[in-house]
Amino acid sequence: MMRTSWIAGPDDGRPGPALVSVTDLRLHRLADLPGVYRAARRLAADWPDLDGAHGMWLWARPWQSRCGAVAIWRDHTALTGFLGTPAHVAVMQRYRGRGTVTSSAWEVTSGAPDEVWSRAAVALRA
């Protein structure tokens, strides 16, 4: 699996509980992957200013037409806030119907990136 380096948000390093979200997009056509990835990178560019974001990684398995994100949030409110941003909504509308999106989320007592990635990587092996 390929992944970006850690993209820190304003809550990076903040102690205490956090929420992890994992998104897995399985595209119907490999030809859509470059556009999806570019759109994800544009969203990631705003991460340092995104309220409630500890940080995130983008990941991809191009040979399987799969990509997604693993993000650590302060709480559900922060995640929901991001999901409703005009930029995120526009990306979802643009690529609607071009694949299957699954997501999961769980709470952690600490948003330690290495621990989170280890658990998320296991979940993404499916």
CATH architecture label: 2-Layer Sandwich
> Care to count the β-strands?
6
Main beta sheet strand tally, sense and closure:
6 strands, antiparallel
Provide the number of structural domains: 1
- Unreliable spans are none
Helix content: 25-40%
Mean pLDDT: 95
Return the CATH topology: Alpha-Beta Plaits
Distance between the termini: 12 Å
Structural class: alpha+beta
How many distinct helices?
4
Shape: globular
What is the N-to-C order of secondary-structure elements (H for helix, E for strand)? Answer: EEEHEEHHEH
CATH class: Alpha Beta
Integer-rounded radius of gyration: 14 Å
Report the portion of residues in β strands. Answer: 25-35%
Quick tags:
about 130 residues; about 35% helix; alpha+beta; Alpha-Beta Plaits; 6 strands
Task: Describe, in plain words, how this protein is organized in 3D.
This protein has helices at 33-45, 76-83, 86-95, 113-124; strands at residues 2-3, 7-8, 18-27, 53-61, 66-73, 99-108. By secondary structure, the protein is an alpha+beta fold. The chain has one domain (2-124): Alpha-Beta Plaits. Helix 1 (33-45) runs antiparallel to helix 3 (86-95). The relative contact order is 0.28. The mean pLDDT is 95.
